[in-house]
Design a protein that fits this description.
- The chain has helices at residues 143-148, 164-167, 178-181; strands at 9-16, 29-31, 36-39, 46-47, 61-66, 74-79, 86-88, 91-92, 96-98, 104-107, 113-120, 196-199, 206-211, 217-222, 226-231, 236-242, 248-253, 259-264, 268-273, 279-284, 290-295, 301-306, 310-315, 320-326, 332-337, 343-348, 353-357, 362-367, 374-379, 385-390, 394-399, 404-410, 416-421, 427-431, 437-441.
- By secondary structure, the protein is mainly β.
- The protein has 2 domains: 9-120, Tumour Suppressor Smad4, CATH 2.60.200.20; 143-441, Methylamine Dehydrogenase, Chain H (7 Propeller).
C-alpha cells in the first residue's frame, strides 16, 4: 500500500496531571507534525520548565515520525542518553521504542507525564451514507421532548420582541435545503478548507462562544466579564453586554432567536434581550461556576452544567429547576440537546460523554472519545453523529451506530479557551492566548 502523505495522520502529546485531571490548564497539547525534541533547552520543540522539572535533561528525548508501507506511519520515542531516563507505561526506554495510541510517557520517574495519541487527519469525505438504526431515536416533532417533561409549547417571549436586526436575515437551515447543502462543505461531511476571520476586542482569553441559529452572528464571553456580539458577514463587533461580576464561561442563543443566555464564575445564569441588549432575567442554582448552557429545540427548557458536577434543567416559563442530573465525576463543560429534544449530551473534565434520556432522566450511554477534557458537543441534524471538541485541539465525530469515532479533524494549534461550531456545520470558532477570536470557514 502506498505511503500516507504528511496530512493523512497526526499525533499529539497531551500533558497529563494524574493528581488533578480536572484542571484544563494542566492539559497542554502538542501537535507532532515533525520530529519533536523534548527537554529543558530552549531550542527544543517542547520546552519543559527547568524550575519545575530539574530531573529532566536539557535534551532529554525525541519523538520521530517514520513512514512505512502500512496504512499509517509509526512514531518512535528515543531517549537521548538522559540522566534519569524516559519511561513508557512504566518501562524504561533503552534506545528507541515504537509508541502505541494511549501510551503514557514519563520524562524521568518523577518528571512530567504525557499521553501519546494519533488518529487520521481528514482530507476527504467519509462514505456517502451512514444508514441503519441509531442510538438516538427521532420522534415526528421537536415538541415531543417538551411534552415528556410536562411542558406546553410556549415561546419564552412574544414574537414581537425578536431581534429586528436578525429577523430580516433568517434563512432556512442548510441541512433542510439540499440545493444549498450539496455544493458546499460542512463539518458533517468532514471536508476541510482553512479560511480564517479574526475578531479582536476581548482583553483576555474567551471561554464561551456560540453561533446564532441563522449562522450570521457569534456571541463570545470572556474572563474580562464581557459578552460581545459579532456580525460574521460584516466582520465586526455589533454590541457588548455587561453584567456578570466575574468571568463569563458560556453563552447560548435561544432557538427562537429572542434571547442570549450566559453563565459565569459568579454562579449566575443571565438572560439578555437581543433586541434591546438589556438583561431581563437571572437564574441562580449552581453551587459553583456555570460552565455550560443549552436550550431545548423549543426554547422552553434550559440545561446548565457547572463546576459542581451537576446538570440542571430549568423550566423557562416558571424560572424553576425541573430536575438535577447527577452523574458527572468532574465539572460539566459541554451540553447539547438532540434535534428531537429527547436526549441531552453532556461532557466535561472527566473526559466522558453521557447521553441522558430526558423522559426518565437517566444515563442511557457513556463513552470517552479521547483522553482529553471535553469542551464542546453537538448533534448532527439527523442525530446519527455527535461532534466532540476537546482540549487536545481535535474535533471528533462519534457515530452512535458503530459506537466509535468515525473521523477526526485536527484543530488549529493556536486554539485555547472556548470553541463553537455553527448550526450548519460550516464554521468553527476558537480563541488564541491574546483573546482574539478566529472563525474558521469550511
Amino acid at each position: 500500500m502506498a505511503n500516507n502523505s504528511e496530512s493523512d495522520w497526526f499525533a499529539t502529546l497531551m500533558r497529563y496531571d494524574s493528581s488533578n485531571p480536572e484542571v484544563e490548564e494542566c492539559a497542554f497539547v502538542y501537535r507532532l507534525d515533525q520530529d519533536t525534541l523534548i527537554g529543558r533547552e530552549v531550542s527544543c520543540q517542547i520546552v519543559l520548565d527547568s524550575g519545575m522539572y530539574s530531573t529532566v535533561s536539557r535534551r532529554h528525548a525525541k519523538v520521530i515520525r517514520m513512514c512505512t508501507d502500512e496504512e499509517k506511519p509509526i512514531w518512535q520515542i528515543c531517549d537521548l542518553n538522559s540522566t534519569n531516563g524516559t519511561y513508557v507505561n512504566g518501562a524504561k526506554v533503552t534506545a528507541c521504542q515504537t509508541l502505541k495510541h494511549g501510551d503514557h510517557i514519563l520524562f524521568s520517574k518523577v518528571g512530567p507525564e504525557f499521553i501519546f495519541e494519533y488518529c487520521p487527519a481528514v482530507t476527504q469525505p467519509p462514505p456517502t451514507a451512514l444508514t441503519g438504526k441509531t442510538s438516538v431515536q427521532k420522534p415526528p416533532t421537536p415538541q415531543a421532548g417538551a411534552k415528556l417533561l410536562g411542558l406546553r409549547q410556549q415561546s419564552l417571549a412574544p414574537p414581537e420582541t425578536a431581534l429586528s436586526s436578525f429577523s430580516h436575515q433568517l434563512t432556512t437551515p442548510a441541512w433542510e435545503d439540499n440545493s444549498v447543502l450539496s455544493p458546499r462543505k460542512s463539518l458533517w461531511s468532514v471536508v476541510t478548507h482553512p479560511d480564517f476571520q479574526t475578531f479582536s476586542g476581548h482583553k483576555s482569553p474567551v471561554q464561551g462562544m456560540a453561533f446564532s441559529p441563522d449562522n450570521t452572528r457569534l456571541a463570545s464571553g470572556g474572563a474580562d466579564t464581557t459578552i460581545r456580539l459579532w456580525d460574521l458577514e460584516a466582520g465586526r463587533e455589533i454590541g457588548q453586554l455587561a453584567g456578570h461580576l466575574l468571568g463569563v464561561n458560556t453563552v447560548a442563543f435561544s432557538p427562537n432567536r429572542l434571547f442570549l443566555a450566559s453563565g459565569g464564575e459568579d454562579q449566575a445564569i443571565k438572560f439578555w434581550d437581543l433586541k434591546t441588549g438589556q438583561e431581563v432575567s437571572q437564574l441562580v442554582g449552581h453551587q459553583s461556576a456555570v460552565k455550560a448552557l443549552a436550550f431545548s429545540p423549543t426554547s422552553q427548557i434550559l440545561a446548565s452544567g457547572g463546576a459542581d458536577n451537576a446538570i440542571k434543567l430549568w423550566d423557562l416559563r416558571t424560572r424553576e429547576v425541573i430536575s438535577t442530573l447527577n452523574g458527572s465525576q468532574l465539572a460539566v463543560n459541554a451540553l447539547a440537546f438532540s434535534p428531537d429534544g429527547l436526549t441531552l449530551a453532556s461532557g466535561g473534565a472527566d473526559m466522558t460523554i453521557h447521553l441522558w434520556k430526558l423522559e426518565t432522566q437517566e444515563i442511557i450511554s457513556s463513552f470517552s472519545p479521547a483522553r482529553a477534557v471535553v469542551k464542546g458537543v453537538m448533534f448532527s441534524p439527523d442525530s446519527q453523529l455527535l461532534m466532540v471538541s476537546s482540549a487536545d485541539q481535535t474535533i471528533r465525530l462519534w457515530n452512535f451506530e458503530a459506537a466509535q469515532v468515525m473521523w477526526a479533524l485536527a484543530g488549529p494549534r493556536w486554539q485555547v479557551g472556548g470553541v463553537a461550531i455553527s448550526p450548519d456545520g460550516r464554521r468553527f470558532a476558537g480563541c488564541d492566548a491574546t483573546g482574539a477570536i478566529k472563525v474558521w470557514g469550511l
